[in-house]
Amino acid sequence: QTKSCVMATVAINSLLNYKTEKYIDTKNKAVGVLHRLFQLSVIGYIIGWVFIVKQGYQEIDDAIQSSVITKVKGTAVTNTSESGLLVWGPEEYVIPPQVRTLLIFQTRLKPCTADETLTSCLLFSFCFFCLLSKGVMSGKCIRNNENSNGTCEIFGWCPTEKNIKPQKPLLKNADKFTIYIKNFIQFPKFSFSKSNILETTDQSYLKKCRYDEKQYPYCPIFRLGDITRRAGCNFQDMATLGGAIGIVIQWNCDLDKGTSHCNPEYQFTRLDATVSNKSIATGFNFRHARYFKNAAGESYRSLYKVYGIRFHILVYGKAGKFAIVPLVVNIGSGLAVMGAGTFFCDIVLLYLTTGKNMYNVKSTDTSTDPCGTP
C-alpha cells in the first residue's frame, strides 16, 4: 500500500512539474557548422520564400467573380460578284451579336426553292448505292432509259454546297477594327470589386484611347491587328480560314498595398494552333442560313459558310490580405522544420562521428525506481 501511494505521488508530481531539455556542449565544430547552416537555410526559406515571395502572412481569396461585356466596332465596304456592293458593320459580321465572334469572310450560296428535287448523287447502272448525298434520299432511282446510268432522288436545298476554301479574306481592313472588352471582378471574401476601365469623368476617354500596357493600361479597347500580333499570328493569314484566340485577363491583387496594386494583366494566345500548319483542324468556320419567301409564297434559303475569328475571354485572379492565422501557421511550420534539423544533427553526432560512444554516455541519464524494489 505504501508503495502504491508513493507511485501515485510521483505520477501526480510528474504531471505538475515542468521539465527542460538537457543540452550538451559537444565542441564538435563540424556538426555545429552543419546545424547553423541548416538553421540559416530554414530562416531564409521562411523569410524569403514564404513571407516575401508567397506572402504567407496573407489570407487568400481565389474565388473570383467576373462579368465580361464585349462590343466590336468598325465598318468596311466590299464589292464582289456574288453579293455586289455591300457596307459591313457589326450587325453583319458579328454573329450572333452577344457572342464574342468576329466574322471575317463569308461565302454565300444562291437561294433556291425548298421543294425542288435534286439528283446530285451519281449511281452505277442499277442504282445499287449512292456515293455521297447532301439530302434525304427518297428511295427512287431516276434513269432516262433502261440502258442509262441512274441517279438517286433526294429531297434537299439546291444548289448543293461547293467545297471551296477562300484564298483571301473578304474584309481585308478588319485589322483596324476594335473590340471593347469591359470586365468587372469581385472578391467576395474581402468585399472588393474593380473593373478594367479607368475611373475618370472624361467622356471622350474611351473614344481616343487604345490599350497600351504602359501608357493606357486601363483602356479596354483593343485593335484586332494588335491582338493577333500579340498572339503571334499574322492577321491576314488568320482571317482567311479563321481561327480561335484566347484572351486571358489575370488579376493578382495585394490588398495590403491598396487598390493601385490590383491591375489587370492581359495574355493573348491562339487556341487552334497545331504543330504543323498543314493540319486539317486549323481554322474556324460554321454555317448558318436565312429563310424567306417569294411573292408566290415559295420558301427560299440563303446558306452562308462563314470563316471568322472567335475570341474566348477567360478571367482568373486571386486577392490577398493580412491575417493572423496564416502568419502563425507558417511561423509554426518553420519552427517545426528547424526542430527536424536538430534531430538530424543529433543522429550525425551520436552515430556517425568518432566520439559517438562518449556522446551517447553524456546524453543519457539512468535513474532508479524512487519507490525502491519490493
TrEMBL record:
<dbReference type="Pfam" id="PF00864">
    <property type="entry name" value="P2X_receptor"/>
</dbReference>
<feature type="transmembrane region" description="Helical">
    <location>
        <begin position="331"/>
        <end position="352"/>
    </location>
</feature>
<dbReference type="GO" id="GO:0070588">
    <property type="term" value="P:calcium ion transmembrane transport"/>
</dbReference>
<keyword id="KW-0813">Transport</keyword>
<feature type="binding site">
    <location>
        <begin position="285"/>
        <end position="287"/>
    </location>
    <ligand>
        <name>ATP</name>
    </ligand>
</feature>
<keyword id="KW-1015">Disulfide bond</keyword>
<dbReference type="InterPro" id="IPR053792">
    <property type="entry name" value="P2X_RECEPTOR_CS"/>
</dbReference>
<keyword id="KW-0812">Transmembrane</keyword>
<keyword id="KW-1071">Ligand-gated ion channel</keyword>
<comment type="similarity">
    <text>Belongs to the P2X receptor family.</text>
</comment>
<dbReference type="InterPro" id="IPR059116">
    <property type="entry name" value="P2X_receptor"/>
</dbReference>
<keyword id="KW-0406">Ion transport</keyword>
<feature type="disulfide bond">
    <location>
        <begin position="253"/>
        <end position="262"/>
    </location>
</feature>
<dbReference type="InterPro" id="IPR027309">
    <property type="entry name" value="P2X_extracellular_dom_sf"/>
</dbReference>
<dbReference type="InterPro" id="IPR001429">
    <property type="entry name" value="P2X_purnocptor"/>
</dbReference>
<keyword id="KW-0675">Receptor</keyword>
<keyword id="KW-0472">Membrane</keyword>
<feature type="disulfide bond">
    <location>
        <begin position="112"/>
        <end position="158"/>
    </location>
</feature>
<feature type="disulfide bond">
    <location>
        <begin position="121"/>
        <end position="141"/>
    </location>
</feature>
<feature type="binding site">
    <location>
        <position position="305"/>
    </location>
    <ligand>
        <name>ATP</name>
    </ligand>
</feature>
<dbReference type="GO" id="GO:0001614">
    <property type="term" value="F:purinergic nucleotide receptor activity"/>
</dbReference>
<keyword id="KW-0547">Nucleotide-binding</keyword>
<dbReference type="GO" id="GO:0098794">
    <property type="term" value="C:postsynapse"/>
</dbReference>
<feature type="binding site">
    <location>
        <position position="178"/>
    </location>
    <ligand>
        <name>ATP</name>
    </ligand>
</feature>
<dbReference type="GO" id="GO:0005886">
    <property type="term" value="C:plasma membrane"/>
</dbReference>
<keyword id="KW-0407">Ion channel</keyword>
<keyword id="KW-0067">ATP-binding</keyword>
<dbReference type="GO" id="GO:0005524">
    <property type="term" value="F:ATP binding"/>
</dbReference>
<feature type="binding site">
    <location>
        <begin position="71"/>
        <end position="73"/>
    </location>
    <ligand>
        <name>ATP</name>
    </ligand>
</feature>
<comment type="function">
    <text>Receptor for ATP that acts as a ligand-gated ion channel.</text>
</comment>
<feature type="disulfide bond">
    <location>
        <begin position="209"/>
        <end position="219"/>
    </location>
</feature>
<protein>
    <recommendedName>
        <fullName>P2X purinoceptor</fullName>
    </recommendedName>
</protein>
<dbReference type="GO" id="GO:0033198">
    <property type="term" value="P:response to ATP"/>
</dbReference>
<feature type="disulfide bond">
    <location>
        <begin position="127"/>
        <end position="152"/>
    </location>
</feature>
<dbReference type="GO" id="GO:0004931">
    <property type="term" value="F:extracellularly ATP-gated monoatomic cation channel activity"/>
</dbReference>
<keyword id="KW-1003">Cell membrane</keyword>
<keyword id="KW-1133">Transmembrane helix</keyword>
<keyword id="KW-0325">Glycoprotein</keyword>
